[in-house]
Amino acid sequence: MIDEKKVKEIALSPWLFDHIKGTNPKSWPIGLDQFYTSVLKLKPMEMFYEPFEILHQDFKTKFNTFIESMKRKISKKQNIDQNLSHLGKALVSFLKLSVIAGSCKMIVIL
Predict the structure, then answer these.
(1) Which residues of 28-42 are buried (b: 16+ CB within 10 A; e: fewer)?
(2) Which residue, among 35, 101, 96, has the nearest Cα to 66 in the 3D structure?
(3) Residue 98 above 80 pLDDT?
(4) Which three-class secondary structure state does DSSP give residue 72?
(5) Is the dihedral of CA 79, 80, 85, 88 positive or negative?
(6) CB of 49 within 8 A of CB of 11?
(7) 31-51 pLDDT per residue, tens
(8) Average pLDDT of the segment spanning 11-34
(9) DSSP code of residue 31
(10) d(CA 87, CA 78)
């Protein structure tokens, strides 16, 4: 049986992702530490009811662009330690975000 009250509460509540700091990968590495720290504090499945794949396509596109940029810089041996750190934080954050959203699909897309 569908709990209409719960459905209405979820539908009217602000999306959790919109309150996480540093969610613009285009500006990373500026803001990446905030994003990393914020995401690690969240509990598994906390964003389960958010339609992440639908609402945040732009985030995933920018995230993939950031990852490709870090890979290029590392392959060119530019600031290897720093760029490896950025790459690691971004990947860990995305994997944790997948757990928070309860989405294996997000991991596969990565």
Answers:
(1) bbeebeebbeebeeb
(2) 35
(3) yes
(4) helix
(5) positive
(6) no
(7) 999 999 999 999 998 888 787
(8) 88
(9) T
(10) 13
Q: How many CB atoms lie within 10 A of CB 26?
A: 13
Prediction pTM value:
0.79
d(CA 100, CA 78): 33
Amino acid at 63: F
Q: Are 83 and 34 in contact (CB under 8 A)?
A: no
Question: Which residue shows structure tokens 């294996």?
Answer: 104
Q: Are 62 and 25 in contact (CB under 8 A)?
A: yes
Q: In Å, what is the CA distance from 69 to each residue of 51, 54, 65, 73?
A: 27, 24, 6, 6
